[in-house]
Design goal:
Chain lengths: 259, 390
């Protein structure tokens, strides 16, 4: 399957690296009957393992929908979506739940559990790892909080943390489950631009260290330079930046290498 | 094993969800405890009343008891020929018998002159009546005519008899218009059908009840040789004696009385209804609390599902919340139940006490209440859609 995709899209970067996400001919509709509306239209792209890819585009063009499809949160209606070697079209509930354990997700809101301290929230991520003792998982949670610079706020509740701190706890939680793919949907939306950039820098650095692929939706032009590639979307399709013209065909990739 | 479990434990989410919202937890526990206390009280009263109906019955020194088939309960005992009791002596296993007269008579309060009915037992003072060996010595005074032994545990409405007697005063009163004198005190206890008890000799009893047919008694106590097969003797006597008498074991005699109160009165129904109301109120409170708890945390549950937690894991969290509520709510209910039983015992002389079977019953009901509510609240978890959280 991955081989045939490689031949279909020979320019997929970086060549030869294992593929984290391979999307081919993906279309998606919302609603039923006369309310049915297409939001994704024949999308093709791929993300290699360890790559940091940003996805941008105007509001309502379908970015979040793509994340929920790639993140195995929504069932695929048409097209192929292969994530970490698992085909999602036609996959069962249980398969998707299992796959989600390998995918870290960071949301627009932090989505922390209000009744858990920072450390406990991060450990909810580490608790997904099989075969580790409680103590080891807790130490890992602390380690991750130190890595995101929150070593002194272990026992604070989300309520007592600032927006940037909460988002960093969310990053630590996502990484604590040792994911091979991170999906982030406008993680900086609720933060001021300086904090936003810091958080994304941190995310990028830690993901790199773990060899974890990142697909991040963002509106923020100041963080585009942190990506290996930027994908631009409009009306459910990928476009070349600036031109607004549809580039993506069956034999072309809408990759935009930075520099 | 335990160590392995402890080592592999996870964040105690159910516990934290409950304890980090102390007000909600307090409301839930108050509701559960209230339901528990209500159930303890209702079941306690019910069992206490049934138990109290046989206070006297339990005291008799007998393996088998003869009563008239026309007797329906301690408050309406019919007579049967005393001869039947004598006939049982022909059985080789029977070692002794005691004929007992049994009736509710009107006692006049020596202080206020008000009358009230009191359970009066008449027997030969030399015959064994109760298993308590202390009675034989006290019974000696009954050989004198017109003497009675007064139960000091009788309700105070009968007058300060025990108090006066202990002060050394001569306590005299009237029964059915006839003069009697208190010759001593015994400690028996009130029962459902009798607020007080008197013991007297057969001779005095017949004087108080001159209309008793000659040779008629209400209760016949039969004692068997040690190690005798009670059921076999009972079957034999039943076969041999005519149908104007009923042969019961002592346990059967107790059950006969309790059955009357159980079936001929609505006591069982009333108190079970009270307990059921407590149960329903508890269910509503726990359901409300768990349902709003799940609703409030729906985005968080959806986040956990997005992280890869299984739905069954989240159902487990809600179930554990239910279990914790049951345990935490039961403890204060149990403690308060103990305390209230003490209060009831002191105020009413009812033999109400915590016993294992009732403690288990109430805990089971609370458990059903909490787990059932949790199961209903779990349906709300179906609305946690991880697809909608990005
Ligand atoms: N659950 C849904 N049901 C129906 N329409 C939806 C739903 N989610 C999103 N949409 C619509 O689909 C389009 C794409 O949405 P979305 O993927 O959220 O875009 P973006 O994240 O790029 O803003 C929008 O027009 C939005 O209104
Ligand atoms: Mg969006």
């Amino acid at each position: 399957m991955a081989d045939s995709l490689l031949t279909l899209a020979p320019q997929a970067p970086p060549s030869g690296a294992p593929i984290a996400i391979a999307v081919e001919g993906l279309s998606h509709w919302y609603g039923h009957g006369s309310m049915r509306r297409q939001v994704i239209d024949g999308l093709n792209f791929r993300v290699a393992a360890g790559e940091v890819v940003l996805l941008t585009g105007p509001s309502g063009c379908g970015k979040t929908t793509i994340l929920s499809l790639v993140g195995a949160l929504r069932s695929v209606q048409q097209g192929q979506v292969r994530v970490l070697g698992q085909e999602l079209n036609g996959s069962g509930r249980r398969t998707r739940q299992q796959l989600r354990r390998s995918i870290g997700m960071i949301f627009q809101g932090h989505n922390l559990l209000r009744c858990l301290s920072a450390e406990q929230n991060v450990q909810m991520g580490a608790d997904l790892l099989p075969g580790l003792s409680y103590r080891v998982r807790r130490d890992q949670a602390r380690e991750w909080l130190r890595a995101v610079g929150l070593g002194d706020e272990l026992h604070k509740l989300p309520h007592d943390l600032s927006g940037g701190q909460k988002q960093r706890v969310a990053i630590a939680r996502a990484l604590a489950a040792q994911p091979r793919l991170l999906l982030a949907d406008e993680p900086t939306a609720a933060l001021d631009s300086r904090t936003g950039r810091e958080v994304v820098e941190l995310l990028q650095r830690l993901a790199r260290e773990q060899g974890c692929a990142v697909l991040m939706v963002t509106h923020d032009p100041r963080i585009l330079d942190l990506a290996d590639r930027v994908l631009r979307m409009e009306d459910g399709r990928l476009v070349e930046p600036g031109s607004g013209q549809r580039l993506w065909g069956r034999d072309q990739l809408a990759d935009v290498p930075v520099q | 094993m335990l160590r392995g479990w402890w080592g592999s434990r996870r964040i105690p989410l159910a516990w934290l969800l409950l304890t980090r919202q102390p007000v909600r937890l307090a409301v839930a526990l108050a509701g559960i405890s209230f339901a528990g206390i209500l159930m303890f009280m209702q079941f306690g009263f019910r069992d206490g009343l049934f138990d109290a109906s046989v206070t006297i019955h339990k005291l008799f020194d007998a393996d088998l008891v003869l009563i008239s088939p026309r007797s329906s309960s301690s408050v309406s005992m019919a007579g049967f020929p005393r001869r039947r009791l004598v006939q049982t002596l022909a059985d080789p296993e029977v070692t002794g018998v005691t004929p007992v007269h049994w009736s509710l008579l009107l006692w006049r309060n020596p202080q206020t002159r008000a009358t009230r009915s009191i359970l009066t037992l008449g027997f030969e003072p030399t015959d064994p009546l109760f298993t308590d060996p202390g009675l034989a010595a006290k019974a000696r005074v009954l050989s004198e005519r017109g003497r009675v032994l007064f139960d000091e545990l009788s309700r105070p409405e009968f007058g300060p008899v025990a108090q006066w007697f202990k002060q050394g005063r001569t306590v005299e009163s009237e029964i059915s218009g006839k003069r009697i004198r208190v010759g001593g005190l015994v400690s028996l206890g009130t029962s459902f059908g009798a607020d007080g008890n008197l013991l007297t000799s057969s001779e005095t009893f017949l004087q108080l009840m001159p209309n008793t047919p000659p040779g008629s008694i209400e209760v016949g106590l039969v004692r068997l040789r040690r190690g005798a097969d009670v059921a076999a003797v009972q079957a034999r006597l039943r076969r041999e004696l005519p149908s104007d008498v009923q042969v019961l074991t002592k346990a059967g005699f107790i059950a006969f009385e309790q059955d009357y109160w159980r079936s001929s009165t609505s006591i069982g129904f009333i108190f079970s209804l009270g307990a059921a109301m407590g149960f329903v109120v508890g269910c509503v409170i726990v359901y409300q609390i768990l349902y709003s708890d799940v609703s409030d945390h729906l985005p968080e549950y959806a986040t956990l599902m997005a992280m890869g937690y299984r739905l069954t894991h989240l159902l487990g969290v809600v179930a554990r919340e239910g279990l914790l509520l049951a345990i935490l709510g039961y403890i204060p209910a149990f403690a308060a139940g103990q305390g209230l039983y003490l209060v009831v015992r002191n105020a009413t002389n009812l033999p109400v006490a915590m016993d294992t079977s009732r403690a288990t019953l109430v805990f089971s009901l609370i458990l059903v209440m909490c787990m059932g509510s949790a199961a209903l609240a779990m349906r709300r978890l179906g609305d946690a859609d991880p697809a909608e959280i990005f």
